[in-house]
Amino acid sequence: MTSAMHHEAPIPGTYMFDGKAAMKGYALNKMCYSLNTAENRKEFLKDEDAYCTKYGLNEEQRKAIRDRNVLAMIHAGGCIYYLAKFSGMLGLTVQDVGAQQRGVSVEEFKKLLKEQGE
Amino acid sequence: MARIVGGLTTSHIPAIGNAVPKEKDLVNDPYWKDFFAAYPPARAWVQKVKPDVAIVIYNDHGLNFFLDKMPTFAVGAAFQYQHADEGWGIPTIPPFQGDPEFSWHIIESLVRDEFDIASCQEMYVDHGFTVPMSLFWPNYSYAGIKTIPVQINTVQHPLPSPARCFKLGQAIGRAIESYPKDLKVVVLGTGGLSHQLDGERAGMINKKFDMMCMEKIVNDPESLARLSIRDLVREAGAQGAEFILWLAMRGALSGKISVVHQAYHIAISNTATGVMVLENAA
């Protein structure tokens, strides 16, 4: 699949969730979307491997979920809006998730946010 | 005839949804103080103007819409809109009253104007809608007004361009002004300003760009409408592209605009927050 977007220079550290990613990540995103309901969150937490099987995640996606690795989830087609339901269920804030992706501590991440306002 | 009294913009970060019920305790909290200080003047304007209807231009983040069916533009046509569990624990707030007759007028007018939107007789509204409503109408005092959700896709690229969103806003403005009932209408544009949640660049904020957007949206929105989605993502971050929602709001204001109030704050969660109250005189 090609689109005009792919012919433009990439924006470093930034992923465009486009049709290609949406097809690749469909099962992963669908699973995360299902976590909107308490019953499903309970089912996931009870046996996450079975839950991943139920939604048809591939090995790359299952590993990313197992490792709680957000960048790996994005590489596997994850969209941050749906992934947030997964990370939120685990009690992670957007700052925890941001720090993990940047490879810095949460304190460093918060400092960086603040500095950009100065 | 219905009249557009003005436009309101605000960020809609989920963390605010958790903070709003505790506002009384947080107004002196060092983290929240500057954020909440931005709202009393906006609320005073809302109370003075007393709009009958709020048209809320927002983006759904995976409550009502999923990738199985992803409309670019969707307009609510329900009697009531419910908030619901979004998965990560913000409190669910009381439902919002709709105005299906006005919704269908807008839908017919938009399609006649070549905006082929999706119409929704059932629609959950997420934090993109509920947080702004609970900020401008505190203590759920929105019960007395009617709402019409206008949802724009910011989840899956291609997103509609800034120019297209501005034109959609203009078409919404024409639709409102051709509605025969004597109603005062306020248009909300929610989301933004600069922020990025995903990727190695997560946490980027661009104060200079945000300032430029808040200045130009008043008297030179056309220059902002000439930006591309890619420009917005590069300058304002992956989720900073939500600025298209502000532009759609601005498109609806056709009269003489004056800035009643504005505020900017870095940061709540990962986001530079912005509030604007734009009055629209005929």
Mean pLDDT of chain B: 97
Oligomer: heterodimer
H-E string of chain A = HHHHHHHHH
Q: What does the main sheet of chain A amount to? A: none
Distance between the termini of chain B: 12 Å
DSSP summary: helix tally of chain B: 11
Q: Work out the helicity level of chain A.
A: 55-70%
Number of domains of chain B: 1
Enter the CATH topology name of chain B.
Protocatechuate 4,5-dioxygenase, Chain B
Concise structural overview:
The complex is a heterodimer of chains A (118) and B (282). Chain A is mainly alpha-helical and 118 residues long. Chain A is built from nine helices and no strands.
What's the topology here?
The complex is a heterodimer of chains A (118) and B (282).
Chain A: H1 19-24, H2 26-34, H3 38-46, H4 48-54, H5 59-67, H6 70-75, H7 80-89, H8 94-102, H9 106-115
Chain B: E1 3-10, H1 14-19, H2 23-26, H3 33-36, H4 40-49, E2 53-58, E3 73-76, E4 80-81, E5 96-98, H5 100-112, E6 118-120, H6 127-136, E7 146-152, H7 162-177, E8 184-190, H8 207-219, H9 221-225, H10 229-236, H11 243-252, E9 256-268, E10 271-281
Parallel strand pairs in B: 1-8, 2-7, 2-8, 3-6, 5-7
Antiparallel strand pairs in B: 1-10, 3-7, 4-5, 9-10
Helix pairs in contact in B: 5-7, 7-11
Q: Mind explaining what this structure looks like?
A:
The complex is a heterodimer of chains A (118) and B (282). Chain A is an all-alpha fold. Chain A has a domain at 17-90: Protocatechuate 4,5-dioxygenase, Chain A, CATH 1.10.700. Helices cover 64% and strands 0% of the residues of chain A. In chain A, helix 8 packs across helix 9 (106-115). Chain B is α/β, with parallel strands linked by helices and 282 residues long. Chain B is built from 11 helices and 10 strands. In chain B, strands 1, 2, 3, 4, 5, 6, 7, 8, 9 and 10 form a 10-stranded mixed β-sheet that branches. In chain B, helix 5 (100-112) crosses helix 7 (162-177) and helix 7 (162-177) runs parallel beside helix 11 (243-252). The relative contact order of chain B is 0.23. Classes of the chains: A mainly alpha (118), B alpha/beta (282). Chains A and B meet through helix 2, helix 6, helix 7, helix 8 and helix 9 of A and helix 10 and strand 9 of B.
